[in-house]
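Researcher: We're teaching a course module on how sequence relates to structure. For the next exercise, students receive a sequence and then see the predicted structure as tokens, so they can try to spot secondary structure elements on their own. Here is the exercise chain.
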Amino acid sequence: MTPPVPHTTRRRSCLLRTVISFLGLLIAQLFFIEYSASSPSTEAPTEVVRATLTEVFLILEDPKLKDPAKIMPRRRLLEDVIAARFDYAEMSKRALAAHWTPLTNDQRAEFVDLFKAFLSDRYAGKIEGYSGEQVEYLSERLEGQYAEVRTKLVSSKVEIPMNYRLINKAGKWYAYDIIADGVSLVKNYRSQFDKIIRSDSYEELVIRLRNRAVSEEKKEKK
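Model: And here is the predicted structure for the students to work with:
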């Protein structure tokens, strides 16, 4: 006959099982949190492009922002919407290509800011020239952390293919290049920047971008 287990021993055994169960539950929860944080986002690249362009068109079509006096506030709104889904650091890195590697962190940060301002000013006029064009979403191609969304800008006069290349970072999709009518924005500027750096220097490129930014700032104040 098995001797009865002392009350104290049974209580310790019960407590031990409770602790083990609690630790098991805690580990499972931590694993779930870590897995959820590292798992890829469920958002679709096409929907990210669609949502961003929809916001852009809403701003452009807003009658309260069509007053000439509202040009700069409207431009800032457009820049904020676009910046939320454009990876300017990735664009800068690809535009500079091999010239990006030797830069310090401070130089990289400065270049990203200058390139962002340059692109905003360069394409503001084109965006603000919107006159009711529609976007057709054609297809989506996924390859690991990269995606390409093919669209077409359609008006009564022209049809322009516009492909958006995106990268997934921390579960979200960000655009890093636009191919308009077969011409890559990043490759176009990579060629121009490389020519300036090789004929003059990287410092000369920065000076030109900085001067352009100052020039645009003066125009805004007039």
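Model: If you want an answer key for the exercise: Residues 14-40 have pLDDT under 50 and may be disordered. The chain is about 60% helix and 20% strand.
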